[in-house]
Fold these 3 entries.
Entry 1:
Amino acid sequence: CLNDIGKVYVNQKNLQEALTFYLHALEIFKLIDNKGDNIVTLCNIGEVYDMQLEHLKAISFYQQAVQQAE
């Protein structure tokens, strides 16, 4: 649900608010050990950082997603 709200904010170009929801979702997914949604959220965060031209941060989150998927 938090990821969906984040996507709405991405579509509205409100990237900071999207990031807030994604980071909150990430905390929850880590807490309940939900690997699949955790990976999706890491990619979503990477996407926001890419859109903000913060490519090194984006790569970091994409790499975390790949590591967790292995």
Entry 2:
Amino acid sequence: QGLEIKATYDFFDPDRDLESGARSRWGGGVAVMPRAFLALEGLFRHTHAESGPALAGKDFDEGVFQVHFVY
């Protein structure tokens, strides 16, 4: 049983020597384990995209909710 607070950061650049595009993502969330067999997790993530020849895309946000049954 317990509570966890999470923070994340990811960075991806296929070629750091060239301006070919890059993607960074940060997020945070909370995980709760109210019972020995049950865990609940909620996360928010924001992805920032710098378009270039190797990567295309735009910024976006996403939310994730997970339920884990531990056996």
Entry 3:
Amino acid sequence: REMLRRMRDDPALKAIPVVVMSAGRISEEERRSSARFLAKPFELDLLLDTISELLGGPNGPVPGSNEGSPG
């Protein structure tokens, strides 16, 4: 939780998508601050698909990223 808060407060790390994985409950703030939430247990394929999507897989670049921008 502390790491996620620090990442969101740091301009250099703010745009990095974070996948939160937990067997317990997470706060609404943590859910809003993360790119995705996966409840344990989950299938490995779901995690890999989530990572692929966030890194610009079949659905394109991560929203807010500079990928695909002219420059």
